[in-house]
Amino acid sequence: MAHSASASRQWVSEELSQSAEHVAERGRAEGQAWLTGVWRRTAGVAWGAVVLLLLGQALTAVGAGWTAARTAGLAAALVLASSLTAASWFHRAKGGALAPVIGEDNRLSTSRTVAAAWVLFVAYSVLVLAGRLAAASRHRERDALISGLDLARGAGIVTVLAVLCGIAVLVRRVVGLRVLGQRLQKVRAVRPRAADLLTDDAGRGTFADIQYVVISGVALVYAAVRLARRPEQLPDLPWGLAVVVLVSAATYLAGKYAEGGRPVILSVVRAREAGDLDGPIRTGDDIEIRGAGFVPPGAQGADRLARMVVRVGAVHVHVPLIPVPGGFRNPTDAVLTVPVPADVEPGRVEVQVVTAAGVETNRYAIDVTE
User: Rounded to whole angstroms, how far apart are CA atoms 309 and 42?
Assistant: First the structure.
């Protein structure tokens, strides 16, 4: 029996693909089990925040005394924690309280998480005012609490809330349209991770996401301090800080428009090993396809790479996997190598790559000789 390097690579690739698919199936099952069980953790976090608030209020009340504002703040936290617990139970199969901030790609959405944090904070602020209003006995005090909801005092925080919620909706629309238009490649993750808020689909930190989370978090902390100092009105977020948050949101939105891109074939050449003679492309030869965007972000695993297909004429060729320490030598984001099947008729044929995300590249014509 004669040794065939191409057949050996194909055999190794098939074994590796089958093993990777088995591991991926177990990973998907574990991811679903994690989503089912995380609702208890989200409820625990909500009630843990209530306990921390109670401890903080008890410590700061030493010497100053317990006030109606502290009672209203604790009551608002109890109402919010109860609501989150109920929502977690109803969505216990989809991540509990995290369900609204998990994107269609099974990753935590940065825009939705930031908007949800501001929504919860504003809801807590209004509940604090409602609690104080219910406990107020004097007419003048009630009027002061009602005037605390005037737009003139809360214009900054209302503007920030409106813009961030609008960006959360707009980003979902933009990503959906870009995926349908094959201008953005999305691969579903095994399960959501906290790192998704600061990284792209490949796990690399992104400036747009990081600055959005950091600046929004800092502004949220400032607003919480203002609420603690003046619990009789909505936090009056200064316009300077509000503009900083809006600039950060605009940067994040621009980053979403700029990311991605359709994969493209730039050239196709005959793959040549050491000692081979130069010549045209023949059936059975390996061809090297050069371009960009062949491996979508988040598709570096063997189970994802095994889904890549190259159309050579009317024949579909699965890209063989060539493992190396720390990854794969084939395929890569810029280069992939496939054999020309014997079923390809000699003549001018077109080559096209279909990525793991299902996105097709442009067609590139090559000449195949006998």
Answer: 41
Q: CB 116: neighbour CB atoms within 10 A?
A: 18
The span from the CA of 341 to the CA of 144, in Å, is 81
- The boundaries of every CATH 2.60.40.10 domain in the chain are 264-369
Is the Cβ–Cβ distance between 89 and 39 less than 8 Å?
Answer: yes
In tens, the pLDDT along 112-134 reads 999 999 999 999 988 888 887 77
Q: Give the predicted TM-score (pTM) of the model.
A: 0.86
C-alpha distances out from residue 141 to 127, 133, 136, 147, 231, Å: 17, 8, 6, 10, 13
Mean pLDDT score across all residues of the chain: 85
pLDDT of 267 over the 80 cut: yes
Query: What is the model's pLDDT at position 11?
Result: 58
Other CB atoms within 10 Å distance of the CB of residue 341: 13
Give the pLDDT band (50/70/90) at residue 324. confident
Letter for the amino acid at 153?
A: R
Q: Return the CATH architecture of domain 264-369.
A: Sandwich (2.60)
3-state secondary structure the chain: CCCCHHHHHHHHHHHHHHHHHHHHHHHHHHHHHHHHHHHHHHHHHHHHHHHHHHHHHHHHCCCCCCCHHHHHHHHHHHHHHHHHHHHHHHCHHHCHHHHHHECCCCCECHHHHHHHHHHHHHHHHHHHHHHHHHHCCCHHHHHHHHHCCCHHHHHHHHHHHHHHHHHHHHHHHHHHHHHHCCCCCCCCCCCCCHHHHCECCCCCECHHHHHHHHHHHHHHHHHHHHHHHCCCCCCCCCHHHHHHHHHHHHHHHHHHHHCCCCCEEEEEEECCCCCCCCCCEECCCEEEEEEECCCCCCCCCHHHHCCCEEEECCEEEECCCEEECCEEEECCCCEEEEECCCCCCCEEEEEEEECCCCCECCCEEEEEEC
What are the structure tokens assigned to 186, written together? 């999305």
Cα dist. 235→113, 130, 147, 176, 342 in Å? 21, 14, 13, 35, 72
pLDDT of residue 1: 46
Q: What is the largest CA-CA distance in the chain?
A: 99
